[in-house]
Design brief:
The complex is a heterodimer of chains A (about 775) and B (about 190). Chain A is α+β, with helices and mostly antiparallel strands and about 775 residues long. In chain A, about 65% of the residues lie in helices and about 10% in strands. In chain A, helix 1 crosses helix 3 and helix 19 packs antiparallel against helix 20. Classes of the chains: A alpha+beta (about 775), B mainly alpha (about 190).
C-alpha cells in the first residue's frame, strides 16, 4: 500500500463513518471508483462496530455438576478463576452457595498454591462480614473447587448509590467493612485487594467481604512482599512500588473506598495504571476531599491515603475509631490539636445539653482565645499563649476522654479537672500560676463566682511565689471584681488599689494594666465611693487599651463599662453625659459585633444605650434593644446570672414605658424569685435592679399596695442617699403609690425628696417632669 | 553499567527517525529489565511478568528519574517502553507457543483494552500486523502501543504524543479497525 492509498483509506473511512450505516455503500460508490478500497473500508467499518459493541463473550459451557453441586449460572470471573452460583440438596433442603473453580489457564503450581492458601485462609476466618467457606473439594475431572457462602447483594458502591445513602449511613456501612478487615488483620491476614466490587451488601444492608484470593498470611514481623498486583486504583503506593506490604496496605485501600463512597470517584480519577504507578513512585501528597466536606472527614481520608505507610493510620481500628468519633461528633485523633478545635468539638458534643453550655463554651472561647492567645500575642507573650493553648488542648482531651473517671458534663467539672491536673501538666511554678489563672478566669467568666475566688487566690499565691508580676496583677484585678460582687467592697477596693499600684512595674502587659485600672474604676463607680475617680480610671484603662491596640474583645469590654459608668456620672451635665454614654456604648457594641462570636458582655453597653434612648424619649427603641439583649444574655448566661437580671430589670422599665405593665409584672416577678436566690447572702442591694421596675409596673398597673411594699424594700436596701438614683427612684414610687391610695400627706415628703434628686441630675427626664406634675397635684389635694 | 546519557541520546535519535537507535536501546535496557524483573519477583515464579506497568515504571525510575527529564524525553521514554513491552510480550508468546498449542484467547481489541494477554500465540500475529502498521503510519502504531501495552488513557496518550485528544480518538478508531480487519479477515 502506498502512502497515497493509505491516506485515501483514512479519508474514506472517516467520511463513510459519518454516514448512516445503510447509506455507506452508496456513499462509497459515489466517491471511490476502486472496488478493492471500497470493500476494505466497509470491512473496517464492520470491524469498528464490532469493537464498539463486542458480542457477549462465549465462556465455555461448564459441566452441569461439580462434585455434589449443581451449577446454576456464572456469577463472575476474575484473573484466577470463575465463580458459579450452585445448589446442593442437603437433607431435602436446597442450599445455595458460591463455587469457585480455577480458570483453565491458571492451572500452574503457583496458582494452585494460591488457591490452597485462600482455602486455608477462608477456613480460618469466622466473621459476620466475611463470606464463610462451606466446603472444598476436587471434581470428577480433577478440577479443584472452593465453596463459599453465597451473598445475594450489590457491590458496595452500587448499593450506596442505588439506595441514595446519606454520608452518615455510608460511614456506618464503611465501619462494618472496617470491622471485617480488622478481624482479618488480627488473624494475621491482609486482604490486599479491597475494592467495592469485592464487598457485597445484602438486601438487609449487611456488607460481606469476598475474595481472599490475593490475601496473604502475615509473617511474624508483620511484613512481606507481595508479587501479586492488586487493582491499581485501590492499591497502596508501596504495594505498587513492590515494597514490603503490611496491614497498612489495606488501610490505604479502605481510604480509597471511603473517598469513593463520599465523592463518587476514586482519588486517581480515570488515570491509567501507568500514571497511578508513576504517582506512587513520586511520593505525592495525599488527596483531600473538596471543601464541601467537613474538614474532619477530609483529614481522615487524607490520613488513610498518606503515601508513606508510616504516615497512615497505624491500623484499621485506628481509622475506624476516627470515623466512629466523627459520627459521634467527638474529636478525631488525626488532627493537630488546637484549642479552638477541641472547643468546637466539646460544644458540638454537648449541643443537646442545657443552653448554658453554649455560653460556657463561648466564654471559654472568648477568655482563652482572646484573653489568652490574642492578647498575649499582642503583648508579646506568644510563648505564654502557646503554653496556655497546649494546656487547654490537653485538658479538653482529658475531658473528652472521660479520663476523670466520670463524664465531664459541666464547666465546673471541667475546671475542677483542670485545677487538679494543672500541677501535673505544668513543668514549673511560673507556668503553673499562669495556667491556674487561666482556669480561674474561665471559672469567673462562666458565672461560677463561688469557686473562682479560691481559684484566683491560688493563682495569686503561686504567682507571688514564682515572681510572676503580670499574673499577680491580673489575679489581683479579678479578685477585686470578685470580692466586690461578693459584697466585700472594702476588700475589693484595697485589692484594686494594690493591683493599680503594682501595674506600673516592668513585666506587666498593657492588658493587665488596663484590667487593673478597669476593675478598680468599676468598683469605685459601683460602690458610689468616688464615682468621678472611678470614671477617670476607666478612661485611663480605655486609653491604654487603644494605645496597645488590644484585641477587639478587650476594648469592647472596657468601652462598655465606661459607657455604663457615664450614665451614673453626677459630674457631667445631662447633655454631656448622654453624649459620652452614647459614644462609648456605640463603640463598644460595634466592637462586640465585629467579633466572630456572640459575647454576653454586650449587655452592659446595651443597657447604657437604652438609657440614652429613654432620655431621648425613644422608648420603643429602648424596649426593642433591651428585649433583644435580655433574650441573648439570658440564653448566653442563664436567667439567674447577675447581668441577666440586670438586663431584665432594664427591659422591665422599658415595658412599663411602652404601656406593657402586665407583661413587665409577669417577667419581673419570675426574675425577682431568681434574684432572691442569686443574691442571697451576698450583694442583696442588686435586688433593686428588679425591685425598682417591678414596683413601677405595679404602680402603673393600678396595684399601689404591692408597688409600695416593693419600693420600700428597695429603699431599705439602698439607704437614704440623695445622690443615688435608686434612692430617688424608690422614693418616687413610694410617693406615687401613696398618692394612688389617697395618702397624700405621707406621699408628699417622698415625692419632694425624689423630685429634688431628679431635678438636679436629670431635669429633663420623664421622671423629673412626671414628678413635678405629681408633686403639684398632691399639694393641691392637701390644700 | 548503563550510561544514562546514552539512553537519553538514543531515545532522541529513535524519535528522530533512526531505526538503529531502537536496537541500541534494547541492547542497553534489556539487562536492566531482566534485573528489575528478578528483583520484582524475588525468585518466585514470574507469573506476573506481564504486569507491564510495574516493570516499566520501575525502569523509568531507575534509568531516568534523576535526570530532570524534559517532557519530550519522558514521552520518548514511554514510547520506547511501550515498544519494549511489545517485544517482551512477543518473546513470551514465542516461548509459550513452543510449550503449548491452541491455548489462550484471541487478541481482544476492545475500547478499554489495557493490556494484552501475552501468553497468547496470537501475540505473534499482532506483532506482525503492528510492524506493518508501523511502516505505513508510525504515529498510529505508537498510539496503539501506548494504549495497549502500557495502558495509557486517550488523554495521556495525547499528552505524550503532543496531539489533541480528538486526534488520538480518531486515529485510534481507524487504526484499531484496520488492525482488527487484518487479524480477523472476514
Amino acid at each position: 500500500m502506498t502512502t497515497d492509498q493509505w491516506d485515501r483509506l483514512q479519508e474514506l473511512f472517516h467520511l463513510a463513518e459519518e454516514a448512516a450505516p445503510a447509506d455507506r455503500e452508496q456513499f462509497l460508490a459515489a466517491h471511490c471508483p476502486d472496488q478493492g478500497l471500497r470493500d476494505q473500508v466497509l470491512s473496517m467499518l464492520r470491524a469498528s462496530d464490532r469493537i464498539a459493541h463486542p458480542p457477549a463473550s462465549k465462556t465455555p459451557e461448564p459441566a452441569r455438576h461439580i462434585g455434589p453441586y449443581t451449577l446454576i449460572r456464572c456469577i463472575g470471573s476474575g484473573g484466577m478463576g470463575t465463580v458459579y452460583l450452585v445448589e446442593r440438596d442437603v437433607a431435602g433442603l436446597r442450599q445455595r452457595a458460591a463455587l469457585k473453580v480455577l480458570a483453565p489457564h491458571a492451572a500452574g503450581p503457583s496458582f494452585m498454591d494460591r488457591f490452597h492458601r485462600e482455602q486455608h485462609i477462608l477456613a480460618s476466618l469466622d466473621h459476620p462480614h466475611i463470606t464463610r467457606m462451606l466446603d472444598a473439594g476436587v471434581g470428577e475431572n480433577g478440577q479443584q473447587y472452593l465453596v463459599m457462602e453465597f451473598v445475594d447483594g450489590k457491590p458496595l458502591d452500587v448499593y450506596c448509590a442505588e439506595n441514595r445513602l446519606t454520608v452518615d449511613q455510608r460511614l456506618r456501612l464503611f465501619l462494618e467493612v472496617c470491622a471485617a478487615v480488622d478481624y482479618a488483620h488480627r488473624s494475621l491476614i491482609v486482604h490486599l485487594d479491597l475494592k467495592p466490587s469485592n464487598i457485597l451488601v445484602t438486601q438487609e444492608g449487611s456488607p460481606k467481604l469476598l475474595d481472599f484470593g490475593t490475601s496473604k498470611l502475615l509473617s511474624l514481623d508483620g511484613r512481606f512482599t507481595s508479587t501479586y498486583s492488586a487493582t491499581p486504583s485501590y492499591a497502596s503506593p508501596e504495594h505498587l512500588r513492590n515494597e514490603a506490604v503490611t496491614t497498612a496496605c489495606d488501610v490505604y485501600s479502605l481510604g480509597v473506598i471511603l473517598y469513593e463512597l463520599l465523592t463518587g470517584r476514586r482519588p486517581a480519577g480515570d488515570s491509567s495504571i501507568a500514571t497511578i504507578i508513576e504517582n506512587a513512585l513520586e511520593d505525592k501528597p495525599a488527596p483531600r476531599l473538596d471543601a464541601t466536606f467537613p474538614s474532619d472527614l477530609s483529614t481522615i481520608v487524607q490520613k488513610a491515603l498518606a503515601n508513606q505507610p508510616q504516615a497512615r493510620y497505624s491500623s484499621v481500628s485506628a481509622l475506624a475509631g476516627d470515623v466512629d468519633r466523627y459520627l459521634h461528633q467527638q474529636p478525631i485523633l488525626a488532627r493537630p490539636q488546637t484549642t479552638l478545635y477541641w472547643l468546637g468539638k466539646f460544644v458540638r458534643r454537648h449541643r443537646r445539653g442545657v443552653a448554658v453550655w453554649a455560653l460556657l463554651m463561648l466564654l471559654l472561647v472568648a477568655s482563652i482565645v482572646y484573653a489568652f492567645a490574642a492578647q498575649r500575642r499582642a503583648a508579646g507573650e506568644s510563648a505564654r499563649a502557646a503554653r496556655t493553648q497546649t494546656f487547654m488542648s490537653q485538658l479538653f482531651r482529658l475531658a473528652n476522654s472521660n479520663y476523670a473517671g466520670k463524664q465531664v458534663s459541666s464547666l465546673n467539672d471541667f475546671l475542677a479537672l483542670g485545677l487538679k491536673m494543672a500541677p501535673l501538666l505544668a513543668p514549673d511554678r511560673r507556668q503553673l500560676s499562669e495556667i491556674e489563672e487561666s482556669l480561674a478566669v474561665s471559672t469567673h467568666d462562666s458565672g461560677n463566682l463561688k469557686d473562682s475566688i479560691p481559684a484566683f487566690e491560688r493563682a495569686l499565691a503561686d504567682a507571688r511565689a514564682a515572681g510572676d508580676i503580670n499574673t499577680e496583677v491580673e489575679s489581683l484585678a479579678y479578685l477585686t471584681a470578685l470580692y466586690f460582687d461578693n459584697g466585700d467592697a472594702a476588700r475589693a477596693t484595697s485589692l484594686g488599689r494594690e493591683a493599680v499600684s503594682k501595674s506600673g512595674q516592668p513585666g506587666v502587659s498593657p492588658r493587665s494594666k488596663a484590667e487593673a485600672l478597669h476593675q478598680l474604676g468599676y468598683t469605685l463607680v459601683l460602690s458610689h465611693q468616688a464615682a468621678a475617680d472611678g470614671i477617670h480610671l476607666l478612661e485611663q484603662a480605655n486609653a491604654i487599651a487603644d494605645k496597645a491596640n488590644l484585641p477587639a474583645f478587650d476594648r469592647a469590654y472596657l468601652e462598655g463599662t465606661l459607657a455604663w459608668a457615664y450614665t451614673t456620672s453626677a459630674a457631667l451635665s445631662e447633655k454631656d453625659r448622654n453624649a459620652a454614654t452614647e459614644k462609648a456604648a456605640r463603640e463598644s457594641i460595634a466592637l462586640y459585633q465585629s467579633l466572630p462570636i456572640k459575647v454576653c458582655q454586650v449587655a452592659l453597653p446595651a443597657i447604657a444605650l437604652a438609657r440614652i434612648y429613654r432620655a431621648q424619649r425613644r422608648v420603643n427603641d429602648a424596649e426593642q434593644l433591651l428585649r433583644q439583649t435580655y433574650e441573648q444574655t439570658s440564653v448566653c448566661l442563664g436567667a439567674g446570672y447577675d447581668l441577666s437580671l440586670s438586663v431584665l430589670g432594664q427591659w422591665g422599665y422599658a415595658l412599663v414605658w411602652t404601656n406593657h405593665a402586665p407583661e413587665a409584672i409577669d417577667k419581673l416577678e419570675a426574675g425577682l424569685q431568681l434574684a432572691r436566690k442569686t443574691y442571697a447572702g451576698r450583694n442583696a442591694v442588686y435586688l433593686t435592679d428588679i425591685l425598682g421596675p417591678l414596683a413601677l409596673a405595679y404602680e402603673h398597673a393600678g396595684q399601689p399596695k404591692r408597688a409600695e411594699a416593693l419600693a420600700r424594700e428597695m429603699l431599705a436596701l439602698v439607704g437614704e442617699d440623695p445622690n443615688r438614683s435608686e434612692t430617688a427612684e424608690a422614693r418616687r414610687t413610694i410617693g406615687l403609690a401613696l398618692v394612688a391610695q389617697h395618702r397624700y400627706a405621707e406621699a408628699l415628703p417622698y415625692l419632694a425628696a425624689s423630685y429634688d434628686s431628679y431635678s438636679r441630675h436629670a431635669p429633663n427626664s420623664l421622671f423629673a417632669v412626671g414628678l413635678k406634675q405629681a408633686l403639684d397635684d398632691t399639694r393641691r389635694q392637701l390644700q | 553499567m548503563t550510561n544514562d546519557g546514552d539512553i537519553t541520546l538514543l531515545l532522541r535519535q529513535w524519535e528522530g527517525g533512526d531505526p538503529n537507535a531502537l536496537e541500541g536501546l534494547f541492547a542497553l535496557v534489556y539487562p536492566q529489565l531482566k534485573q528489575i524483573a528478578r528483583s520484582l519477583f524475588r525468585g518466585e515464579k514470574p507469573e506476573n511478568i506481564l504486569q507491564p506497568t510495574v516493570l516499566v515504571n520501575e525502569l523509568y525510575l531507575r534509568l531516568l528519574r534523576n535526570q530532570n527529564l524534559k517532557i519530550e524525553d519522558r514521552s520518548h521514554f514511554y514510547s520506547f517502553a511501550a515498544r519494549l513491552m511489545r517485544r517482551v510480550l512477543l518473546d513470551q508468546a514465542r516461548q509459550e507457543s513452543r510449550l503449548k498449542r491452541n491455548g489462550g484467547l484471541p487478541v481482544q481489541l476492545t475500547e478499554d483494552l489495557a493490556s494484552v494477554d501475552g501468553s497468547s500465540p496470537e501475540m505473534i500475529d499482532l506483532d506482525r500486523v503492528l510492524t506493518e502498521l508501523d511502516q505505513l503510519d508510525s504515529r498510529k502504531c505508537r498510539m496503539l502501543e501506548l494504549r495497549y501495552f502500557l495502558g495509557f488513557t486517550a488523554d495521556e496518550t495525547a499528552e505524550l504524543l503532543a496531539v489533541s485528544k480528538a486526534t488520538v480518538d480518531r486515529d485510534l478508531k481507524f487504526a484499531r479497525s484496520w488492525l482488527y480487519n487484518k487479524l480477523h479477515p472476514a
